[in-house]
Amino acid sequence: MSWQSKVVSTEIRKILAYRSDFWINFLGQTLIQLFIARALWQSIFESNGLTEMKGLTLPQLTLYYLVAPLTMKILMGENIGFLSREIYDGGLNRYLVWPLPPLGYKALTFLTYSCFYLAQLLIIYSIGRLLLDDSPYQLEELVRLILGMGYILVAAIGYFFLMSLCEMVAFWADNTWTLGVMLRFVAAFLGGAFIPLTFFPENLRHIIEFLPFASMISGPVNLILGRASFMESLTAFLIMLAWLPILYFSVMKLWKKGNLQYTGVGM
Amino acid sequence: MIQVQNLHKTFKVSTKEPGLMGSIKGLVSRKYITKTALKNVSLEIKQGEMVGLIGANGAGKTTLVKVLAGIIHPTDGKVDVLGFNPWDRSDKLRSQMALIMGQKAQLWYDLPALDSYMLLKEIYQIPDVLYKQQIEFLADVLQIKDQLKVQVRKLSLGERMKVELMGALLHRPNVVYLDEPTIGLDLMAQKAVRQFLKDYQKEFKPIILLTSHYMEDIKELCPRVILIKSGELIYDGALQTIQTQFGERKKLVLTFEDKLTAPPQIPSELGTLEVQDNKLSLTTTRQKLNPAMDFLLKNFQPQDVTIQDPPIEEVIESFLRKGRS
Predict the structure, then answer these.
(1) CB–CB of B108 and A10 under 8 A?
(2) Which of A113, A148, B72, B273 has the greatest CB tally within 10 Å of its CB?
(3) CA distance A24 to A18
(4) Which chain A residue shows the shortest CA-CA distance from B108?
(5) Which of A2, A96, A100 sits opposite B71 (nearest CB)?
């Protein structure tokens, strides 16, 4: 077994180490988010006497708010602090003395969380689809789901780079938690996790579509929910792919510079 | 072999005025000071040597270890560890090296140590047979077999240190950096860790560089010590030499046949006198040792005379206080 697969299995064991935290994380957070979104949109639909908004019915919107936050969660992987915390408290030392690429190790642990949440998305989406949409299942839906999940995983790599850029500011500024929160907010907003991008003004939407956030969040969500054609999804995917090398090289450059600043001190 | 030439490391550290106003001012502008952690440090350690690194808090011991382990980059100087520049972070070097920092865990807190060891086995590509041998040998010597399946966070401090040591030595490293390995441990655990390190050194002959505030660790384990003061290397040599050459105080102990009834009259400039039963002790300085001895032997007829060196802790403390001069 290679060290890579061992890292993945170790991370899974860490995720499963605490039973109550596991279930709260698995179900609690999603259900709360879904409940808030559903209540909010229901009141908007009812107060305006609408049955559809921007081509979305209330059950469709509910399904959107099931898939979009979970997609965001997959992208966020190990969550804010996965690298900055280690830089701050000197925990990074262990990865620097092990004979392996430290960032590669961190990417693997990050993506293990992403895969874990991806399984969560699959289960919750299947239940949600069963409850919220009574139309019969079709082959295309399954294809969209499989392609969408692959898309999200590639997007998670991109988001790992984005988050790493923020996290590595800790080499200079020590505590960068707020920066991570800001990135999450900006990504969720411009990616369509808060409000579907169809609700944005068209001019703004055209600009947003070329940023990495929309292609990382709305792209796969719309593919899974059948709200984008395969061609539109492919375009979004290619936009995201174009961002990957830019983000990768930025991360490597910052990592090299940051390492010169690292003091390895901490608690 | 480890070779260090003119190693220099400075840090830029931000400072802040105390109090609320200081914190508010700090939001707008910060003052920085440059702290020299290592100044022209040169040393050489041969394979199989166990060397103690001693210095006060903030003297630069841990910085030196971190530079040697490739964790931080030096400002200037050359370092060669087993033929590699440590901050190139070559896998070949890192697979022969181990770092144990008493105050920082390397293993995963939420998992039993054995789970972390399985990961380390893959990271260091330890063959199955060697892995099993090492687990058995280390668990046996450290007497920790029963704790290997318990979550690390649920172990006592001493047990945790033992499983950390075990994890760091699984791949039989040729260079081991130990930073305060017995910190916070009770006497029994300290003794067990020391004995283990002795046995390990005897068996596998790695380079071991040990920093510790417990002189007992150094005394028992390190024939050679390096003293660092304010980032400068002020002594590199045998521990015994410091004691015999640099111990300022000497204790002359005269043993008599009968119990001494009254304290004898001795000129106060010769030293401090102490009488207990049939023993007379005179604590004097190195310079006054001969006149004191002459005086005592002229005026008393002891059964036995011994000259004792002061405790090593005291000598090193005085050495560090005064420096090379």
Answers:
(1) yes
(2) B72
(3) 10
(4) A14
(5) A96
CB pair distance less than 8 Å for A91 and B104: yes
Alpha-carbon gap: B150 to the closest alpha carbon of chain A (Å) = 12
**pLDDT tens-digit readout, B141-195:** 888 888 899 988 898 888 888 898 899 889 989 999 998 888 777 777 788 888 8
Q: Judge whether B224 and B166 are in contact, CB under 8 Å.
A: no
B106 interaction partners in chain A (CB closer than 8 Å): 94
Question: Tokens 């995720």 correspond to what residue?
Answer: A15
What dihedral do alpha carbons B261, B264, B268, B274 form, nearest 10°? -40
For residues B39 and B4, the answer to whether their CB atoms sit within 8 Å is: no
Contacting residues of B for A94, CB less than 8 Å apart: 104, 106
Split at pLDDT 50, 70, 90, the class of B297 is: confident
What single DSSP character describes residue A23? H
Give the model confidence (pLDDT) of A176-200 as tens digits: 888 999 999 999 999 999 889 989 9
- Distance separating alpha carbons of residues B43 and B99, to the nearest angstrom: 19
Confirm whether the ipTM is greater than 0.90: no
**Going by C-beta distance under 8 Å and a sequence separation of 6 or more, which residues neighbour residue B106?**
A94, B99, B100, B164, B167, B168
Helix and strand counts by DSSP (H, E) for chain A: 14, 0
* Domain definitions of chain B by residue range: 248-308
For position A256, what pLDDT does the model report? 94
Query: Which residues of chain A neighbour B116 with C-beta distances below 8 Å?
Result: 10
- A98, A172, A265: best mutation site toward chain B, by most B Cβ within 10 Å? A98
Residue B279 CA to residue A180 CA, distance in Å, equals 71
- Give CA angle at B179 (B110, B206), nearest 5°: 100
In B, minimum Cα distance to A266 occurs at: B104
Distance (Å) from the alpha carbon of B97 to chain A's nearest alpha carbon: 8
* B204 near A CB under 8 A: no
- pLDDT confidence of residue B325: 43
Interface contact flag, B119 A10, Cβ < 8 Å: yes
Q: What is the CATH number of domain B248-308?
A: 3.30.70
Using the Cβ of A206 and the Cβ atoms of chain B, whether some distance falls under 8 Å is answered with: no
With tokens 């086995």, the residue in question is B121
DSSP letter at A53 equals B
Whether B100 has a pLDDT exceeding 80, the answer reads yes
Alpha carbon dihedral B116, B118, B124, B128, in 10-degree steps, equals: 150
Q: How far apart are CA A142 and CA A148, in angstroms?
A: 10
